[in-house]
Design goal:
Two copies of one chain form a homodimer. By secondary structure, the first copy, chain A, is an alpha/beta fold. Chain A has one domain: Rossmann fold. Chain A has seven helices and six strands, in the order αβαβαβαβααβαβ. Chain A has a six-stranded parallel beta sheet with strand order 3-2-4-5-1-6, sandwiched between helices. Chains A and B meet through α1, β1, α2, α3 and β3 of A and β1, α1, α2 and β6 of B. β6 (165-173) of chain A pairs antiparallel with β6 of chain B.
């Protein structure tokens, strides 16, 4: 069995590393953990004293356990969603919400930011509620050190092309398959 | 300036679900976000008022941004690692550390716990530093509502078989591939 990939360089050295490069991360695929991983990244960034802003697309009709906690940590969270497709009264409303969310993201960037999480934006893009060009423009014109994390299924190819780090979350096994209901703390 | 739009979450109908079932989650694969997703889950669980304990195998020689933040949130974190294979003086030492980590996990469970994160335990199992039977015994004898999250590459088949929810993190694209160094907040 091959050894795991060499570990990342020691943080002390890296934190002093002046070559900060803002990365575009995409978490996509059918598997779990796309948003969770983004929130974990927010947690980590806060641990490094970074300023993190989360725009949550699509979701917003439920109260997710992590959001209050992120807020307690100083992460600002805004919701640009009212629920999944069938929960929102019209595609036009979805487009309004998506445009609003991206505008709020731009304002957060203008206020000064280290990490921007666009939760479920991939769905919004994939379903055509937000033109991918609009997001690509935000990425192109952002401060060079700003990390942007885009989560959700259906990440369009143009975004994957523009991204630095893309992870596909593949569902191997899910408790729903044996009739177990969503569990607080795990599913939401 | 677009209007701030205060979130208006609907009742937590899922949280009212009384059928709590402890799940075994496995995050494996070569992609990023396996630990990050587990820490995000810890964040979420804390948001639900759950008690979370993290045992970190393998990693432990480094200072990860998220650990202090998790501690601030009341998540207890213990390190049962001194670094990757080539950083630890012997496989025997790896086995000692792994056994110690699992013993600490058992003690945390005995004290009362809702979520147990065994970070990088899959590597420890995959490399034979901990017999998979030992972990399976812990899973079998645990309180029925305890969620256990096992992260890391090389998750053995027996663990995947025993798990409820398995996600494989597939690396699609990584900035190392274009020579970008590990970035604080993203990589560690």
């Amino acid at each position: 069995m091959s050894d795991p990939r060499p570990p990342d360089p020691k943080p002390r050295r890296m934190v002093q590393n002046k070559e900060r490069v803002g990365l575009v991360l995409v978490h996509t695929g059918d598997g779990k953990g796309k948003s969770t991983s983004a929130f974990g990244l927010a947690l980590r960034a806060v641990g490094h004293g970074m300023r993190v802003h989360v725009i949550q697309f699509i979701k917003g009709s439920r109260d997710y356990g992590e959001l209050d906690t992120l807020a307690k940590l100083g992460v600002t969270v805004e919701r640009a969603g009212e629920g999944f497709t069938w929960e929102v009264r019209s595609d036009e409303r979805q487009r309004e919400l998506a445009a609003w969310g991206l505008a709020r993201a731009q304002e957060a960037i203008a206020r000064g930011l280290d990490v921007l999480v666009l939760d479920e934006v991939n769905i919004v893009l994939g379903k055509g509620f937000l033109p991918v060009e609009t997001l690509l423009e935000l990425l192109k014109t952002r401060p060079p050190e700003l990390h942007v994390v885009c989560t959700g299924r259906y990440a369009p190819d143009a975004l994957i092309e523009a991204a630095d780090l893309v992870t596909r979350h593949e569902l191997v096994k899910h408790p729903f398959q044996r009739g177990v209901r969503a569990q607080p703390g795990v599913e939401f």
